[in-house]
Amino acid sequence: MPAASPPRYSDVQIAARQAALRALTSGQGLAAAARAAIDTAETFLARIIDAVDLHEQIAAIQCAAGCYHCCHQMVGITSAELALAREAVDALPEPQRGATRARIKDMAERGRGLDQAGWWQARLRCALLDEEGRCLIHAARPLPCRAMNSYSAETCRRSHAGERLQIPMLAAQHRIHGHAQLGLAQALAESGEDTMVVGLGTAL
Ligand code: SF4
Q1: Which of 15, 37, 142, 202 could cross-link 184 (Cys pair, CB 3.0–4.6 Å)?
Q2: What is the DSSP code (8-state) at residue 50?
Q3: 192-201: per-residue pLDDT in tens?
Q4: What atom of ligand 1 comes closest to residue 126's alpha carbon?
């Protein structure tokens, strides 16, 4: 029997759109639509890893809890991912929730008016990182955060320190989550929802 052909990136976009649309038209809401698109992306990534045998590449990715250099970028998210992130912040226990909301307020004030380059230049740390540099909403993090990956934590560290470097990464992981976000945005548009992509740091 011939091996199954690997899914194409356009398939991810179509499937994410369909999954998000199902959530929206059945009245489950924005956060559920984001979750549907995220689950679709993660399923496709797992399929591609198997289909073209990316297991070694996945094992070589150095991203780990507590490594947070990339969490100083402006993260562009849809209204659905914003709803999911807010839900996750609301579910944090106190006093963590109060402290996180205070950081969110501070980040929004310091980031107001900055474009992507300015945000990175200011090295604004995501308010959703805890003191140890771990994402407080890891299970609900937006698609661009899931797209980020690196074969070299040292390159990320040097980039964060100000060197202009290309981060070596698994392109498939980056593209899959990007296409899933496009599919999610399409579903939002077709459902009459806000399609504007906003910065996580100032929108929360
Ligand atoms: S949401 Fe989480 S993963 Fe994304 S930038 Fe913030 S801390 Fe990092």
Answers
A1: 37
A2: H
A3: 998 878 889 8
A4: 6
Query: What pLDDT is recorded for position 1?
Result: 46
- CB 128 less than 6 A from any atom of ligand 1: yes
Q: Where is 77: in which H helix or E strand? A: strand 76-77
Q: Are 89 and 137 within 8 A, CB to CB?
A: yes
Using the mean position of ligand 1's atoms as its centre, give its distance from the Cα of residue 72 in Å.
8
By alpha-carbon position, which residue is closest to atom 5 of ligand 1?
A: 71
CA–CA dist 202, 35 (Å, integer): 21
Cβ neighbour number for residue 39 with a 10 Å cutoff: 14
**Ligand 1 centroid to residue 134 C-alpha, Å:** 8
Nearest CA, atom 4, ligand 1: 145
| Phi-psi group of 61: left, alpha or beta (phi > 0 → left; psi -120 to 50 → alpha; rest → beta) | beta
> Residue 204's closest CA among 131, 127, 135, 145?
127
Cis peptide before 168 (omega within 30 of 0): no
Query: Residues 6 or more apart from 99 whose CB is under 8 A from it?
Result: none
Report the Cα 102 to chain-centroid distance in Å.
22
Cβ(198)–Cβ(121) under 8 Å? no
Element of type H or E holding 76:
strand 76-77
- Average pLDDT, whole number, for the chain? 94
Task: Determine if ligand 1 sits within 6 Å of the CB of residue 88.
Answer: no
